[in-house]
Write a structure and sequence with these properties.
about 100 residues; mainly alpha; about 35% helix
C-alpha cells in the first residue's frame, strides 16, 4: 500500500551546498535558501543513502578527518531532516516480508 503524504513535505536537496529540506522550505521557485540554486527532489534511493550515511557516522572508521563535533552536527542535521519530512530515520528493517 502506498502511503499518502503532504506534498509540502516532499524531500529536496541542493546539489551545490548539500542543504536538505522540504519543498515548502525551498519556496515558490524551488530554490535553496542557503545558496539560491534550484533544488532537486530526493527519491527513495536518495533517502536510503542518507540513512546509510547516518548509520556510518556512528562508526569510528568513517569520516576520520571529521572531529566529534562535526560528526555530531551532521548526525543532528540528518535527524532534523527526517523529522521535518515526516519519515522514519530507520527503514522498515524489522518488517516481515511476505
Amino acid at each position: 500500500m502506498i502511503e499518502q503524504h503532504d506534498p509540502k513535505t516532499s524531500p529536496v536537496a541542493c546539489p551545490r551546498c548539500d542543504w536538505l529540506g522540504s519543498i515548502d522550505q525551498a519556496g515558490d521557485e524551488s530554490r535553496c535558501p542557503e545558496c539560491g540554486t534550484i533544488v532537486c527532489p530526493l527519491r527513495q534511493k536518495g533517502l536510503d543513502s542518507l540513512r546509510a550515511h547516518h548509520r556510518q557516522l556512528l562508526k569510528m572508521g568513517y569520516k576520520v578527518e571529521w572531529t566529534l563535533e562535526q560528526r555530531a552536527a551532521e548526525q543532528e542535521r540528518v535527524e532534523r531532516f527526517f523529522q521535518r519530512i515526516g519519515q522514519p530515520l530507520r527503514g522498515d528493517q524489522n518488517r516481515d516480508r511476505a
